[in-house]
Amino acid sequence: MTKPKLWHSYSARSLRPLWALEEMELDYELELLPFPPRVFKREYLELNALGTVPFFTHGDTEMTESSGICLYLVETFKQLDFGLPVGHAEYGDYLNWLFHSDATLTFPQTIALRYSQLEPKDRRLPQAVEDYSTWFIKRLKRLNAHLEGREYLCDGRFTIADIAIGYALYLGESLGLDQFYEPIVVDYWQRLKSRPAFIKAEAMGSEQALFKAVKYPFTDAPELF
């Protein structure tokens, strides 16, 4: 079977599967795209009608969901050192963190990012930025509690659940929201971003970055919690 191929834009959710590919030391192809590719590389729409990243192929398989691609890599390439098998006592928790990472954590950040940096200045909405940033920080409560006494999320070891949640923390840092992380989350995030595979993956495509890390413009921290 052909080796997997990933289409990636710097700082986008495609960092999740790219990080996973590096952790698993798999042989893969990488296509770097400017963000958002549906605007700056229109021909990409012929390949992926959504115009989003990631886009992933492996033989006849095509995928667009970052955490799903990570799960596919674990199960297809038998990389169970980075996942948990069905029947494991923490399997449900493992799956929950994978889905929680986007449905609960990344979604509000994408709204904040859009209306703070990506829209033209006359379309930016400070109130939306503040509201959705608040949403994200409040929804870190489960992570705050879960990390008590833990180094990683599941089974006492690093898995793709950490990659999925780690990207949400990475995006929060780029929005200046890391100043509101609880100390236990700060320590956890430091462990994740110190991993050699993350450092290597995060640098890929950095010359095409559309937005830079910023300082969060609102300072009314008590309301965020």
TrEMBL record:
Signal peptide: none annotated. Residues 1-81 form the GST N-terminal domain. It holds the Pfam family GST_N_2. Keywords: Transferase. One of its GO terms (molecular function) is transferase activity. Transmembrane segments: none annotated. Residues 87-218 form the GST C-terminal domain. InterPro entries: Glutathione-S-Trfase_C-like, Glutathione-S-Trfase_C_sf, Glutathione_S-Trfase, Glutathione_S-Trfase_N, GST_C, Thioredoxin-like_sf. PANTHER family: GLUTATHIONE S-TRANSFERASE FAMILY PROTEIN, GLUTATHIONE S-TRANSFERASE-RELATED. This is Glutathione S-transferase. It comes from Litorivivens lipolytica.
